[in-house]
Write a structure and sequence with these properties.
Layout: H1 2-20, H2 26-55, H3 62-83, H4 94-120
Length: 125
């Protein structure tokens, strides 16, 4: 019930914002599409994690699965960076690297503890 109410409120907010906007430029369209993509992508990711956890991952495999997911993300990020011409970028900017590592650790912990919580509450969810 609460998910339905949250969906209605968020959809209404998006409609009101764009109803009052006078110019529907490409930039305004991105302000609509990007949050929608994050919303849909997060829901898809959560559902996929639950599906994989329920059918494939045992309690002791949560760390291995999380490590594999982050390794694949790192590998794809390196390939996309190399293909998109990131050679010109300064890749050794220390604050960016440190904050990226900090964000990665937080995301790793988040996924790891979500999997452990789903394994613990397997009969409830």
């Amino acid at each position: 019930m609460i998910y339905l109410a949250a969906s209605i409120v968020s959809s209404t907010a998006i409609y009101v914002i764009f109803r009052w906007a006078k110019n529907y430029s490409c930039r305004r369209l991105l302000w609509f599409i990007l949050p929608l993509a994050i919303f849909v992508g997060s829901g898809f990711t959560d559902s996929l994690i639950k599906l994989i956890q329920a059918s494939q991952i045992a309690d002791e495999q949560a760390a291995s699965f999380t490590t594999f997911v982050f390794f694949v993300a790192f590998f794809l990020g390196v390939i996309v960076s190399l293909l998109s011409g990131a050679r010109e970028m300064k890749l050794t900017h220390i604050p960016t690297l440190l904050l990226g590592i900090l964000l990665g650790i937080a995301n790793f912990g988040s996924l790891f503890f979500i999997l452990n919580a789903l394994n613990y509450c397997n009969g409830f969810i």
